[in-house]
Write a structure and sequence with these properties.
By secondary structure, the chain is of the alpha+beta class. The longest helix has 27 residues.
Length: 375
């Protein structure tokens, strides 16, 4: 399958290809400290920014160092891919930057630390797109299980790092009903309408039409959750449903787009959201692969089209919020986000008709299962 010699494919990038100080290796071997949601909520309610910063001062370098070490262990040909190498350099630089900052012990040093942390958080915005592009180019040099294990670990670690950092930064801001990054009165229906409007814009730009979204069920429900996580999941699921609906309509020559139906149901400790479309479902051949990284149902124009041609064509589809279909990370990442605090994401297709997606999320301020989650 691979034209490269086996020795080159398996050669670890832990070798002399990387020049990193011993500090990363030492810090990366230190145990990380799991943090419960309950602890984060208490810190946020108390607005104890100094205690939060002092904890992060010790904890974040350990987590960053582990990501650097994980990339070092990739096969050489994968580790030196420009996209993967850029992530490696970014994490190494972030580690070194945090090591140089004085420990926050008072207001001035706290402000310096928080400002530097904000800059680092902003600099990590492109990590996931670069991961996706890198593995599209060179993931073939690893077996599927190894790719999945690496990306699962990378994405879960990234979520944890960002939740801790952004929760600390959010303590400096005051928003009604928010505790750090946790929205204690998050309305799924309001967020769904907002996301649906943006996805409709993307769909209109790409196809000239978009299906309506019909909202049903317990539309007045509110719960405690991370707004940005639910927003990401909804964006990916609605992009999939709208694209499938429009493309299936083209195939059937339907003049009117059937609506995407979204039903909200409030349980004792959980919120359930069902997204139902009439986009033709998923073929039996594709169904086992829909949660695989880099799998996408966006077809190439022809079999000779390479990754750069495919990316150029996807870039041409870009509209508000990005391309309607992208790099194959949407569903697997959505499932990781859903499962991170004890929820789940399930997909049930009806062949030739459409698909039902069931999203279950815990009310993280009340559900015992979510409170026991460690970040």
């Amino acid at each position: 399958m691979n034209s490269l010699p086996k020795a080159l494919r398996t050669f670890s990038s832990e070798s002399a290809a990387w020049h990193v100080g011993k500090k990363i290796g030492l810090v990366g071997k230190e145990p990380t400290t799991p943090v419960t949601l309950q602890h984060l909520i208490k810190l946020g309610q108390a607005k104890d920014k100094l205690a939060s910063a002092q904890f992060l001062y010790e904890e974040l370098p350990r987590r960053l160092a582990r990501r650097v070490m994980a990339i070092q262990k990739l096969p050489f040909i994968v580790g030196v891919n420009p996209y993967i190498k850029s992530i490696y350099n970014l994490y190494s630089h972030s580690f070194e930057t945090l090591q140089k900052i004085p420990k926050p012990v008072d207001e001035p040093t706290l402000n310096v630390y928080s400002e530097q942390l904000r800059e680092l958080v902003d600099s990590h915005q492109d990590v996931i797109p670069n991961l996706a592009k890198g593995f599209l180019e060179c993931g073939k040099y690893m077996d599927k299980q190894s790719v999945t294990e690496f990306l699962d670990g990378m994405i879960k670690a990234r979520i944890g790092i960002r939740v801790l950092a952004e929760h600390h930064l959010a303590m400096t801001e005051t928003h009604h009903n928010w505790v750090g990054v946790i929205d204690t009165k998050l309305s799924p229906s309001i967020l769904i309408r907002s996301v649906a409007h943006r996805v409709s814009d993307i769909c209109e730009i790409n196809y000239g039409t978009a299906p309506e979204v019909e909202l049903k069920g317990h539309t007045s429900t509110t719960f405690s959750y991370l707004h940005v996580h639910l927003e990401y999941i909804l964006m990916e699921l609605l992009k999939n449903s709208m694209r499938a609906t429009v493309e299936h309509s083209m195939k059937l020559r339907r003049r009117e787009q059937p609506p995407v139906e979204i039903t909200i149901c409030e349980g004792k400790d959980d919120i359930h959201i069902r997204i139902r479309d009439q986009g033709g479902g998923i073929s039996s051949e594709d169904l086992p692969k829909v949660f695989d990284y880099s799998f996408t149902t966006v077809p190439k124009i022809n079999e000779d089209e390479g990754i750069f041609e495919t990316q150029a064509r996807l870039a041409m589809q870009s509209g508000v919020g990005g391309p309607i279909a992208g790099l194959g990370f949407g569903l697997p990442m959505s499932r990781i986000y859903a499962k991170y605090f004890g929820g789940c994401l399930e997909l049930i297709p009806v062949a030739g008709h459409g698909c039902d997606v069931f999203l279950t999320l815990p009310n993280i301020s009340g559900a015992a299962s979510a409170q026991n989650v460690k970040i």
